[in-house]
Amino acid sequence: MLVEVAQLLEAQGANPFRTGAYRKAAETVRALNEPLWQIVGRDGLEGLLRLPGIGQSLGHTISHLIQNERLPLLERLRGENVAERMFATVADIGPKLAHRIHEELGIETL
Fold it and tell me: Tell me, what DSSP letter sits at residue 13?
């Protein structure tokens, strides 16, 4: 989910540092020798903050994900990008052109 957040943020032209933070957090999580839920269960938020590349904001995000099995930011990003993702399914239309079709022309559907 963290990788998907990074991809959607990047596609929407978000701050590259924010995008990079989500990518780094995903790499950290992938490299762990134990599941995140065990870390949170044992050490809470503090356990997440001890992980490389996990700060307060990402720590809270990951903690919320573990406790609620959902990530509101990801849900919002997916919803804001529905038309663009749909256009990108058409041959020869990539994410940038899909964004331009949606934003500059105001087209919402195929």
Answer: T
Contact 5, 74 (CB under 8 A): yes
pLDDT of 57-74, one tens digit each?
Answer: 999 999 999 998 888 888
Residue closest to 23 by CA, chosen among 45, 56, 1, 55: 1
Token reading at 38: 């065990």
Q: What is the predicted pLDDT for the residue at 81?
A: 65
User: Rounded to whole angstroms, how far apart are CA atoms 22 and 20?
Assistant: 5
Quote the CA–CA distance of 92 and 102 in Å, as a whole number: 16
Amino acid at 43: D
Rounded to whole angstroms, the Cα distance separating 80 from 103 reads: 11
Exposed, middle or buried, 37 (CB in 10 Å: 0-12/13-18/19+)? exposed
Q: What is the dihedral of CA 54, 6, 65, 30, to 10 degrees?
A: -60
Cα 104 to Cα 53: distance, rounded to the nearest angstrom: 36
